[in-house]
């Protein structure tokens, strides 16, 4: 059966980020110690076996303590779950029972631990209380930590990967994603996650092909397997035949050529057929990505996410460090606008050990502006850094997660205070910057008329707006298909926001994923969005789409769009009228 | 061993006996020389085991009985009672 080994297998998932890559698989499987061997331990070796178990527990405890100690004071409250893990490590139900099991059944420590866990875990899994149900996961975490030490497997340290590989994981937390040396990674494959999960967004931003939501990728793919990732079709080919490899290589070249073709025109401004100029900006997460925005012909930065500087380090960044970061971006962009969004942490972008915190529903919890207003010192440090950097270029400040006008007032007050202090200290800064808010909570849309009085611009964050309006967790594969940007409710919300803004004399921008879909461009312009911001690599396609629109006849089209009752009907309508806009993509799709 | 002393208590904190409060209780119970048990609706749990405590599923307002097996652990029992009554300091 030698042949079977190298048989070609095709796995299907969700296309997370377009592009094709061929390479060796590198498994990051935290629960990769599933395969545990059972063996009998001789009478005289029993105490040594128990000792081996105790050492493994001790090591696991030390590792946990280190993580807790390395956590900045500010985030300490979030690692309480790890404190609990330290206690659970030596809990009688796990520790004492495993030792008993080793001694009574004369079996190896790994097998004993596995048996004990399989007895204890169901007690929690079968509970009706959700909180207690989740404690089963604590037991899994803890026993995995012990198991890793027992089998001597090195816990995979993502930050240390330095090979040109394709990463295969169950799921990557935003924290893990932030540690990866991205220039080293050719592609991503993950069991979980949808198109709009954090991993998907990061992969698209960095133009790394990614297939997510594969389900069983970590079971079907082994380390060093040759795999092909097609991020457009959402397929992964394991052990491809010579024939498939050749075909893929050709397809990859065609794809790259087409991309280059669109890119050639990307530096020209995007004007509609009737001459209306629309700015197409780039979204960035890392200062290094600025170059990519310019390379793709971006007219500015429509969204600079500032969380990374907070997540990829053990303590809070200093004002000086933030200032340098922002100034780096501004210096490269020159006179082009740079929209800096203030800290948006504790939503899905939490450090992975924070995720298990007491907040039952972090998306509805203490995040973004709510967090910043609760921690005014952290917020002010960032505001000072932004105001200082603003002295060197064209900066806009964007405040996330606004749900009511008090939040805007408080944020502006803090901004004024920060500016006053800078003034008193004689430090160069610029308070005269446009201050806008993210429109991503339904209440902000409904009260847009009130909010418009207080701000200089709106920026619609479609990812969260869709999530909150349709009550869909975009990372949940069971409901991901219900995450529909063209839902009539979403179109009405965008329309209302734009109309209110126009009346108030301010602009409406869009920086969510929706802005990066070329097919949606006619609808967005029709609804009245003034500027689009998207991941750098889709800027050329969006510009291309704008060039094929005639805004003088978009009115009738929009009347028809707004009469549609389902997302599918809207999509069919736009495809019928503007199908050519997305032809390139369709062409590629049909090849599969 | 038969319990020699016990206290019946009501859980007053919002979150009930969850991981953190159970950890605090288990830590105190661990200082006892004899056994410390928690009873709730006829089920009993070893008070020194956080996991065992959690399996009792005690939400806010649940009534529990904490008992000790050794007279010398009276102080521990009183400290546990104080901890529960204080809502685990939450």
Number of extended strands of chain A: 17
Alpha-carbon distance between the two ends of chain B: 34 Å
Strand content of chain B: 15-25%
- The figure for the number of domains of chain A is 3
Task: Give the second-level CATH assignment, the architecture of chain B.
Answer: 2-Layer Sandwich
SSE arrangement of chain B, N to C? EHEEHEH
Helix content percent band of chain A: 40-55%
CATH-defined fold name of chain B? Histidine-containing Protein, Chain: A
Uncertain runs of chain A: 347-357, 581-592
* Cα end-to-end separation of chain A: 30 Å
Mean pLDDT of chain B: 89
What's the CATH first level of the largest domain in chain A?
A: Alpha Beta
> Major beta sheet of chain B, specifics?
4 strands, antiparallel
**CATH fold call of the largest domain in chain A:** TIM Barrel
Number of helices of chain A: 25
Give me the count of strands of chain B: 4
For the biggest β-sheet of chain B, the strand order reads: 1-4-2-3
Structural domains of chain B: how many: 1
What is the CATH superfamily label of chain B?
A: HPr-like
Oligomeric state of this protein: heterodimer
Describe this structure in words.
- With 592 residues, chain A is an alpha/beta fold.
- Chain A folds into three domains: 2-30 and 157-257, Glucose Oxidase, domain 1, CATH 3.50.30.10; 43-151, PtsI, HPr-binding domain (Enzyme I, Chain A, domain 2, Orthogonal Bundle), CATH 1.10.274.10; 265-590, Phosphoenolpyruvate-binding domains (TIM Barrel).
- Chain A has 25 helices and 17 strands.
- In chain A, the strands form two sheets. Chain A has an eight-stranded mixed β-sheet. Chain A has an eight-stranded parallel β-barrel with strand order 10-11-12-13-14-15-16-17, surrounded by five helices.
- In chain A, helix 8 links the parallel strand 5 and strand 6 (210-212).
- In chain A, helix 2 packs across helix 6 (130-151), helix 3 packs across helix 6 and helix 4 crosses helix 5 (109-125).
- The longest helix of chain A has 25 residues, at 46-70.
- Chain A starts with a helix and ends with a helix.
- Chain B is an alpha+beta fold.
- Chain B has one domain (5-89): Histidine-containing Protein, Chain: A (2-Layer Sandwich).
- Chain B contains three helices and four strands; from the N terminus they run E-H-E-E-H-E-H.
- Chain B has helices at residues 19-29, 50-55, 74-85, and strands at residues 5-10, 36-40, 43-46, 63-68.
- Chain B has a four-stranded antiparallel β-sheet.
- The model of chain B has no long low-confidence stretch (mean pLDDT 89).
- Classes of the chains: A alpha/beta (592), B alpha+beta (90).
- Chains A and B meet through helix 3, helix 5 and helix 6 of A and helix 1 and helix 2 of B.
């Amino acid at each position: 059966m030698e042949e079977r080994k190298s048989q070609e297998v095709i796995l299907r998932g969700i296309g997370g980020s377009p592009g094709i890559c061929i390479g060796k698989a590198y498994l990051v499987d935290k629960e990769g110690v599933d395969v545990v061997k059972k063996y009998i331990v001789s009478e005289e070796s029993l105490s040594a076996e128990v000792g081996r178990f105790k050492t493994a527990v001790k090591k696991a405890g030390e590792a946990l303590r280190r993580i807790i100690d390395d956590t900045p004071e500010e985030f300490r409250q979030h690692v309480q779950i790890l404190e609990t893990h330290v206690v659970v490590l030596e809990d009688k139900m796990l520790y004492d029972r495993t030792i008993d099991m080793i001694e009574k059944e004369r079996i190896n420590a790994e097998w004993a631990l596995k048996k004990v866990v399989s007895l204890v875990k169901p007690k929690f899994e079968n509970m009706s209380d959700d909180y207690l149900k989740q404690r089963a996961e604590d037991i899994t975490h803890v026993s995995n930590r012990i198991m890793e030490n027992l089998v001597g497997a090195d816990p995979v340290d993502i930050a240390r990967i330095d090979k040109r590989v394709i990463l295969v994981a169950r799921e990557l937390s935003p924290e893990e994603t932030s540690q990866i040396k991205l220039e080293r990674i050719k592609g991503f494959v993950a069991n979980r996650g949808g198109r709009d999960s954090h991993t998907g967004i990061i992969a698209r931003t960095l133009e790394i092909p990614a297939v997510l939501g594969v389900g069983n990728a970590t079971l079907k793919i082994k380390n060093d397997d040759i795999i092909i990732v097609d991020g457009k079709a959402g397929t992964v080919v394991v052990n491809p035949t010579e024939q498939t490899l050749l075909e893929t290589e050709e397809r990859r070249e065609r794809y790259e050529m087409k991309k280059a073709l669109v890119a050639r025109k990307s530096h020209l401004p995007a004007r509609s057929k009737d001459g209306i100029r629309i700015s197409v900006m780039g979204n960035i997460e890392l200062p290094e990505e600025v170059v990519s925005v310019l390379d793709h012909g971006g007219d500015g930065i429509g969204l600079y996410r500032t969380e990374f500087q907070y997540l990829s380090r053990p303590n809070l960044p200093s004002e000086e460090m933030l200032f340098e970061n922002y100034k780096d971006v501004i210096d490269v962009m020159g006179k082009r606008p740079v929209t800096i969004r203030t800290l948006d942490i504790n939503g899905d972008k939490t450090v992975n050990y924070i995720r298990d915190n007491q907040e039952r529903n972090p998306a509805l919890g203490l995040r973004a502006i709510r967090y910043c207003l609760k921690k005014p010192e952290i917020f002010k440090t960032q505001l000072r850094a932004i105001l200082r950097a603003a002295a060197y270029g064209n900066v806009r400040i964007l405040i996330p997660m606004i749900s009511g006008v008090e939040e805007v007032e408080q944020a502006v007050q803090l901004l004024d205070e920060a500016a006053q202090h800078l003034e008193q200290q004689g430090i160069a800064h610029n308070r005269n910057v446009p201050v806008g808010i993210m429109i991503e909570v339904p209440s902000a849309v409904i009260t847009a008329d009130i909010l418009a009085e207080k701000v200089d611009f709106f920026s619609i964050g479609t990812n969260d707006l869709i999530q909150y309006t349709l009550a869909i967790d975009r990372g949940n594969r069971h409901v991901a298909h219900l995450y529909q940007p063209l839902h009539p409710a979403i179109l009405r919300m965008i329309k209302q926001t734009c109309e209110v803004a126009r009346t108030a004399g301010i602009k409406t921008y869009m920086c969510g994923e929706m802005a990066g879909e070329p097919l949606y461009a006619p609808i967005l312009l029709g609804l009245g969005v003034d500027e689009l911001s998207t991941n750098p690599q889709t800027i050329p396609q969006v510009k291309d789409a704008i060039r094929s629109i005639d805004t003088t006849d978009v009115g009738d089209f929009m009347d028809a769009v707004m009469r549609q009752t389902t997302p599918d009907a809207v999509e069919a309508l736009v495809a019928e009228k503007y199908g050519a806009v997305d032809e390139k993509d369709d062409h590629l799709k049909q090849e599969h | 061993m038969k319990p020699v002393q016990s206290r019946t208590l009501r859980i007053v904190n919002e979150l009930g006996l969850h991981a953190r409060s159970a950890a605090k209780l288990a830590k105190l119970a661990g200082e006892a020389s004899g056994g410390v048990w928690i009873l709730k609706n006829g089920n009993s749990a070893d008070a020194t085991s956080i996991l065992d405590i959690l399996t009792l599923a005690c939400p806010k307002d649940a009534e529990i009985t904490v008992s000790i097996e050794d007279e010398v652990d009276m102080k521990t029992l009183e400290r546990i009672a104080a901890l529960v009554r204080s809502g685990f300091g939450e």
